[in-house]
Amino acid sequence: MRYLKPFVALLLSSGCLRAQSTPPAPARAASDSNPMDSIRRLPGYRPAHDTLPLLSDARIATLPAAERAAWTAYVERSRATRARDTAAMNAELRAAGAAKMTRAAYAHDFSVEKWMTPQWFAGDSARAMGESILSYQAPNGGWSKHVDFTKGLRARGQSYFGESTEWSWISTIDNASTTSEMEFLALLDAVRPDPRYRQAFLRGLSYLAEAQLPTGCWPQVYPLMGSYHDAATFNDDATVHVLELMRDVASGETAPFVPADERARADSALSRGVECLVNSQYVFGGQRQAWGQQHDPVTLQPVAARSYELESQTPQESANILRFLMSLRAPGPRVVTAVHAGAAWLKKTQLHGYSYRFDTGLRAEPGAGPLWARLTELGTDRPIFSNRDGVKLYDWSQLTDRRTGYGWYTYAPANALKRYDSWSRKHPK
């Protein structure tokens, strides 16, 4: 949890907090307008196709007996949770005399920001946002995404999701959803204790425990949504966000109200998750390398997601996995081996002589770098790209409908490698 430690230190040094007399920093601007509404109306727009089902009944039936039992139980729990969730919404719709959900107010994302100080959390804006977050917690205990929590409480029959009126993404760890709401409630409770904040946090913790795959990582969406959403998801650091939360809960650094048995449960989830990270590291030619955006939930091999997110390794997510593994206080031998191998791969795949901006793209610039391609081809480490048609390209300049609006290059591994320099001296090969 990125801001919890400095927040707690400031809280302890400030003594008895009072609501600040000056207005708090304004919340990130958000709008009810969903950008996808206009994107879908563009000429030639076509949605990115999904991949084949990863957890079909037919596939699970082919697994060895022990694995088959674990996966069968997991999928059955998911279906039961989804049934309870949708039944609860149907009851709301009947009570409201409505036939269909209304969409939640849209915001691109939600996170705990640096300007959310202890003084801000003591004020009315934080309290109002906390009430909104409580109202958007789904029956399963998680949260969806793209919701503007500054727009007030969720209404009866209103979706938990801000992008459409379909039952989708309920709930998810994508875009740091669920973990960010839990972090906010823990910080709010530290300033203005409220049993409802603590209960919601514990429900979120139970949700994450239930969502953990038998192989130890997390799917992007749970209850399961099908397609690539069921993969072990590292894209946008989804699994890493959960593991950071579990690490801090287990150590007592986050949410001191969590009972001892739940801390032990978080510690177990953390151990299984770390094991999944190590087991997921891609191996080529007998050498450990890095990680993809998502991996098959059963075999833990890299898989494709949206049509332009091809089967690959990804330096950006790999760098953040390494940063997490290097944060562990007592890494075991397998973790140490994984970190050294991942850092070596990042050093090997760095590029020089180019600069990149999300809005304008790639350009040659002598002396610039290092930077890394977002996706690299398995086996060759060549940068790869794709438009929505899913055709693999090796030249960024050949992109058309996906040239902008997606981060094809990243600088993130540079910070991970700086951290590795000091970490490696304490943990030699």
CATH architecture of the largest domain: Alpha/alpha barrel
Strand content: under 5%
Query: What oligomeric state is this?
Result: single chain
Shape: globular
Low-confidence stretches: 14-31
Please tally the β strands and state the result. 8
Proportion in helices: 40-55%
CATH class category of the largest domain: Mainly Alpha
Helix segment count? 13
Please give the structural blueprint.
Layout: H1 4-14, H2 35-39, H3 57-61, H4 65-96, H5 118-121, H6 124-135, H7 179-191, H8 195-211, E1 232-233, H9 238-251, H10 260-280, E2 283-284, E3 287-288, E4 294-295, H11 315-327, H12 333-349, E5 354-357, E6 361-364, E7 372-373, E8 409-410, H13 413-426
Antiparallel strand pairs: 1-4, 2-3, 5-6, 7-8
Helix pairs in contact: 1-7, 6-7, 7-8, 9-10, 11-12, 11-13, 12-13
